[in-house]
Amino acid sequence: MIPVPSAVPRGDVLCLSHLRWNFVFQRPQHLMTRCARERRVFFIEEPIVWPAVSPHLKIETHAGVNVVVPQLPEGLTSAARTRTLRGLIDDLIEAEGIREYLLWYYTPMALEFTDHLSPSAIVYDCMDELSGFKGAPATLKNREVDLLRRSSLVLTGGRALHDAKKHQHDNIHLFPSSVDVAHFGKARRPVTEPADQAAIPHPRLGFFGVIDERLDIGLLDGVAAARPDWHFVMLGPVVKIDSASLPQRPNIHYLGPKQYEALPAYIATWDVALLPFAHNAATRFISPTKTPEYLAAGKPVVSTSIRDVVRPYGEQGLARIADDVDGFVRACSAAMVEDAAARLRHADAFLRHTSWDGTWSRIRSLVHDAMRGTLVGERRGLASDAAAV
To answer: If 178 and its partner were Cys, which of 77, 122, 359, 381 is the partner (CB 3.0–4.6 Å)?
Structure first.
């Protein structure tokens, strides 16, 4: 049995996620690692299917979080899959002595095998409009309606998403993704150049994150063609799209996924940090975590007109915004010659108001109220106002 931390608040957390813990370190990992400092956290991933395996749970501990991965055999019908997953979750609860607990959802689809449970409260941390993503299940929207109805507390990961959801629940709060300033601030100091980036010439324009249907590959190709003397460093896994569809030019360098700990060493020698997102259903409500991370790393930012980048970053002069090749080239050119010292002062003034520790502290208070069943109106306003900074 996994031990209960001493002096822990009552109640464990069962977190249901569509994202794998070791995929890209982002919002779920930041929040759950902080939650795990005072509660037991079981981060339950989507199942992995094998040719011949008895159903069971694989449990590993990462950063204090118990990462739970259901292992299922091939060939299960939908109904059998649901029954099996329900049984595995029930077994987990029994084996770990989980009595009072909170259900924390990142995906409404997990309701299929958890809607029979009786938690103290339910939190829906809506970090993306998943129904707009490539390959989204047809039933996802209906599942979300059900999850919103059941939830005690709803969090949204960006302003555009909050505006779209705010009338769908009476206890919904805006908490834009934050930043670990100290971690990304390492990019402002001398670092050892990563071996796979060392030979890439300057100027270097970089991007890190998931490379999928949200990336404007036409824009990337056009800018790289217009400026063959610039070099584009692309870090991250390629998912849901054919890697063969990505533009291939001598000045575009796909270096693959990198560990969160290694990112500052890569960013440190970039001349510009990029957010070249397309405008489509998958990006309509996104709020890129990497925007404040780029700023903390001390880099100028150039982005397409994603709503949650335009406001607040574009409006406050913290990011340049352009959507076509000519405009993007001009914005990157201007970014390379701007006053770096002034940029850092401006970025640091903004970043003083945001941190993952501060975000978790405000969310923690709301979670405590939800588990007590005393949702305080004044506290809702405090959380929303603080998150809007």
So the answer is: 359
Task: Say how far apart CA 50 and CA 74 lie, in whole Å.
Answer: 6
Residue 42's beta-bridge partner residues? 14, 66
- Give per-residue pLDDT as tens, 168-185: 999 999 999 899 999 999
Tell me, what DSSP letter sits at residue 209? S
Domain assignment present for residue 7? The answer is no
Find how far residue 319's CA is from the centre of its chain.
20
* pLDDT tens digits along 11-61: 899 999 999 999 889 999 999 999 999 999 999 999 999 998 999 999 999
Dihedrals phi, psi of 188, to nearest 5 degrees: -85, -5
Whether residue 158 sits in one domain with residue 243: no
Split into its structural domains, the chain has a count of: 2
Cα gap 259→240, rounded to integer Å = 20
3-state percent helix, strand, coil for the chain, nearest multiple of 5: 40, 20, 40
| Token couple for 258 | 């990198």
| 325 φ/ψ angles, rounded to the nearest 5 degrees | -60, -50
Q: Do residues 226 and 289 make contact, with C-beta atoms less than 8 angstroms apart?
A: no
Domain hosting residue 138, numbered range = 12-178+356-387
In Å, how far from its chain's centre is CA 66?
19
